[in-house]
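Input/output pair, single chain:
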Amino acid sequence: MGTISGYEPARDDQPSGAGKGDGPGARVALTLYGTTTSPYTRKIRILARAAALDATFVDTRTDAGAAALARIAPLGKVPVVELAGRAPLVLPDSSLIAAWLWREHAPAIQAAGFAREPAGDADAVWAERALVLVVEGALDAAINRFYLLKDKLPDQGYVTRQRDRVATTLAWLEARMPAFARPISAPALSLGCALDWMVFRQLVDLGRFPKLAAFRATWAASGAGAGTEPA
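Output:
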């Protein structure tokens, strides 16, 4: 266990209710269970840092971390956030955790350079959510393939289809994903984390996707994910 590297103390510009009560901006003790390689854990680390939260990080690759995760999360997947300071609450999925962070700490996250969903345009909201699902669908396929091959399953059938799903989706994103820009949208955050993980695991050659390679380079240069890279 330990404090997440790069986290900053709570800032004074939080809403007036920060530190007491249950309303948005209230301070609660937050424990994040995950690994430093997980791209979904990384997304939460980035948003929590943007929210200026002091969070305790539990590495679930250790025996103690795995046992702690098993006690609170029946799915056994990461990331998981455990909240204390009010009725204990466990959030067992990155999208749910991100939604909680935005609800509770939107002003700080926006001030750090991240964008909320488009306001006043329902079609734009649905399009953005759909883009996140496409990006993370490709990431899920890449994760499946990596671990199935690691377990020495033959590269055929379902395993091969995961490779094809990644390639097809990246080609689709190459043609449609907007260039990296600030404020950083939810699809951009997901894509930055996904591409970094795929490259880290040597699952894709971004030379085949020059626009996505340029996106990743700009994402890295932005510093938004600095200090949280997969390792």
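Residues 148 and 159 are 7 Å apart (CA to CA). Strands lie at 2-3, 30-34, 55-59, 80-83, 89-91.
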